[in-house]
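Fold Annotation — chain and its backbone
Encoding — discrete vocabulary of local shapes
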Amino acid sequence: MLALLNHTAVSRVTLLALALCLGLSPAGCKKNRASADAAAKPTTSLAKVERRTDADGLPLAKSLNSFDAFSALGYRPEWVGYPVMPRGRKVNFFDAFDDIVIVQESGNVLTVMDAATGSNRWSLNPSTKLTKFVGSIRRPDGDILCSSESEVFILDPVTGVIKQRQHLAKIVNTRPAIVADILVYGCPSAEVLAHSLTSGYKRWAYAVDGPITAPPVRVGDHVSVVSQRGEMVVLETRQGAAVGRGQLFGGLANSPVSEGGKVFFAGLDQSVWAYDQYGHEPTWRVRLDQPLRDQPFVLNDRLYISIPGEGLACMDTSNGKRLWTTKGLQGSVVAKRGERLIFWGGHEAMAIDPLRGDVTERITLTGVDRLAADKPVDGNLYAYSLKGEVQKYSPKK
């Protein structure tokens, strides 16, 4: 028995000495194991990247976390934020500005986030969860104008106080365009409604052929509207007089865009149209083989639009001439960063050379539903999921 005890004691001493020689201790073993477990635990991120070449020869990148992924596009991380998002709901409207980010979820809770920090300034539901909202814009003085189909709520961006609730004379179907103190909406009743923020009442209404689902777009000091039957009008905002008029052969599944006194439509009638704000005939029209649904983007006399079956096309806004087409790309240009376009394709973000259409960077994003920018050139980029996580990225200097 004594020999057995001595043998056991020797074994324990031998093991302890071995552990000390290796620089380990029971506590150290636990610490090292915890460190190993932490190192092995996957980190959550919105983006993963692979760097390789696809069938079309477009470059991809190796696996990185989301911050490194956006670095390839010329951005650096700022923050991750979480607007108020009750379980089972999703983002309905997302709008980014220099000072704030506005998120409204499907139950109508509106959250205003501080653009500098990502913290939630305030949140509220302006009405009931059954009310249909059409989106928010900003007033020149900074107030938030949140529109439902029957009211406009004027909100203080710092405190969330509802300064006014103004009733709309008609049921509206789109977010408004704003010119001075006038909001211009499209209506399902085949009318354009102008609402005065100063008086709180209807300024004028203009009848068109067919309901309006695409938001009006500002063209200089006028507003252009197109109905789902293809009637296009450019309206003077003070009195509602038509200064331009045209006819498409169908409606829109996206929003019109404007630049330099011209307005551009990518239509369901398989055409891209350009109208001068005072013209009654199109400046040009490009006929295609498929209806156009992706959002067009216009900048510096160039119109970018994804064409089904062809890819991303760049057109000269003066004559509609095709300057280049990058095959296989379906989605929308969301901004320009430096000398590169930032393109969102649903699961991938890309940097594209605006002169030739070459894809210079391409990243695959996991968990990101959309990209948005707070301004078209060298602004901040936001990646967000419909479940409510928001990531902000600023341009690298």
